[in-house]
## 1
Amino acid sequence: MLVDFHTHTTGSDGTYTPNTLLNLAKNRKIEILSITDHDCLDGIKSIENIPPEILFVPGIEISAEFPKTLHILGYKINIDDYELNNTLKMLQEYRKSRNYMMIEKMQKFGFNISINELVEEAKGELIGRPHFANLMVKKGYVKTYQEAFDKYLKKGGPLYLDKKRLEPEKAIELIHNAGGVAILAHPYQTGLEGENLEKLVKKLKSHGLDGIEVYYSKHTPRMIEEYETLAKKFDLLITAGSDFHGKNKPDIELGMEINFKEIKDFIFKLL
Ligand code: AMP
Ligand code: ZN
Ligand code: FE
Ligand code: FE
């Protein structure tokens, strides 16, 4: 079956609006779709109508505090949950002040980027490093988007500023309190494998983690095998997502072809 439990819209750093994405999913004959914008529910709240062919699952991708990258996906959340909305608002406000601090930092490098240019570049998306990178290319400060990250914007780079993130256990708790299911996204991005990854999964499970995104557009067969073994060992659900961002990540296509039996426990949990 064709599903996608991990997509981004203009509600965060994707290029399609939620309504356009739903139509795209319908045309591709995707049966179940979840929108999982970064730390934001505004995209989902702007949905006007859901094509009857699609089972739509409201989602979120929360960036948690971690040395490398730790993203927790939440599904079937109540999008009006008070605590969840309040916490996301706090994170978004922090992001806004981070953007101003990044503009100041940029000026010290002779890179002149204004908030108006960022707003224009982001076209309603949550402003973040990708928009800084695009403007740095447009203004000739770097040759490519990737050069902007590699030289300046990557974590630890001279123009990088940390974001405020939730502790992983807090992210899981927030998702559960909003009635949702908490899934560890793209495990390889933690930078861990083998025993170290197992330790992390064990710890997250002890805090209530419900599952692992075993199938992901960038996972190799070896990774899939490792994550599936971990999921089975810790009695965790298995999910599948592409991390579609539209034209911002042109190499990622919408939709994951997956055997129903691989993800059936997760699907049943959503119904
Ligand atoms: P921000 O939320 O502002 O910290 O930006 C995060 C986004 O920046 C991610 O979703 C990626 O799209 C992009 N990004 C982060 N690190 C890199 C990197 N090393 N190379 C290219 N893009 C990156
Ligand atoms: Zn993203
Ligand atoms: Fe992610
Ligand atoms: Fe994502």
## 2
Amino acid sequence: MSADFSFLAERPELRFADSIKDARPLILVRPDALEVQLASLPQAQADFVRAQGFGAAAGAVVLLPGATGVAGALLGLGDAQACERVRFALSLAATALPEGAWQLQGDLRQDALYEAALGWLLAGYRFARYAPDAPPKARLVCPEGLDRARLEAMAAGEAFTRDLINTPASDMGPDELEAAIRLLADHHGAQVSTISGDDLLTQNFPMIHAVGRASPRTPRLIDLRWGESGPTLTLVGKGVCFDTGGLNLKPGASMGLMKKDMGGAATVLGLTHMIMQLGLKLRLRVLIPAVENAVSGDSFRPGDILISRKGLSVEVNNTDAEGRLVLADALALADEECPDLLICMATLTGAARVALGPDLPPFYTDDDALAAALSKAAQAAADPLWRMPFWAPYESKIEPGIADLDNAPSGGMAGSITAALFLRRFVTQTPRFAHFDIYGWQPAPAPARSRGGVGQGARAILTALPEVLL
Ligand code: BES
Ligand code: ZN
Ligand code: ZN
């Protein structure tokens, strides 16, 4: 069991510069104000900038020569359209600038400053477990008015999420996922208990057992608790450490990325780190059904009917719709305690991606105030989300007749909605419930997000908490 998560160790690239002393100016400049800016610089510097063809495009950087090396740099803000199109564009400076501390200068609205500072930290993330990948050496001085501890907690939580997703299933099975959770819990003084293997049957988690039993890597339900007082928040995350599809085997091209099928768990755990690191006054519970959806003689089959923890019978019409099965038993347990807020995160459907693409995860809730707070927080935290409906007229699609529920309605129309409706059947007492159908993967490098695992929604939820819970 290896659990090498350096996010718990010092990772200076995920932090701001400690000292403002010797920090060089990083001057923000709009394309339409470039000439005025250049006029204020010494002639030699202005000529140098002009000679480079610097046009202040979003995230473009040009160094300013000084008597003893680099005196500072200009950072382009781009035009309004560029800022709308590219999230975290200014974070390109983090990798473009030489070693040392840098301090932003110039006018920037508070929200843009927040995005720039957060993006800078996120741009420092590297996954170097299997091959060296040196992080950038330029450090930003935390801009005035921003909450340094909060931004650093967000960056560390996001790094944890990415590490968990990027680690291949060979080193991130249910056992290793549990080890990582225990490491996180130890770091913050949280309690962890686990129900695994046949105990899942005796303690009534039949669907977690059914999905995970084909793998020699024991399925389990991991249960973390933290916090003594305050409102109760329960987070549930899909922890399918690898999704072959089961007997309804995925074709090769679709299986390739399925180490990321624990992205819901990873994102929930990144959020858990943020909450604990910031010492929020709430009682937190985190439930992770951790399984591998494998193929063997013991696999659950198409046509099987499972009796869930809640007592609802479920016809398995596709063993590849396994996420909703393991989540249903975990959500039923969460619901028994009736927390003030229940949040579920899962790489649940390909249909969510067809609808909104990899960068904009849908979320579902019946609570309009919660939805409004999440949408506002998503904007503020540079963590986009889009509300989709628990569309009751589609309830009939998940009712197969032979059992209470169908895990994979034929035709697949509205696949993300029917999956969400399926989950909602298991939450009947909790006043506020939200489900996030995330992708958890950055397909191509973008500012502040290298290709690979990525957290989605955690910062938005963290940002919404004061309004909805605290
Ligand atoms: N883990 C997948 C969903 C997924 C696929 C998320 C690709 C992100 C990218 C999930 O277990 C799954 O296979 N869902 C099926 C459900 C269907 C069989 C009803 C899907 O979305 O195709
Ligand atoms: Zn699947
Ligand atoms: Zn899956």
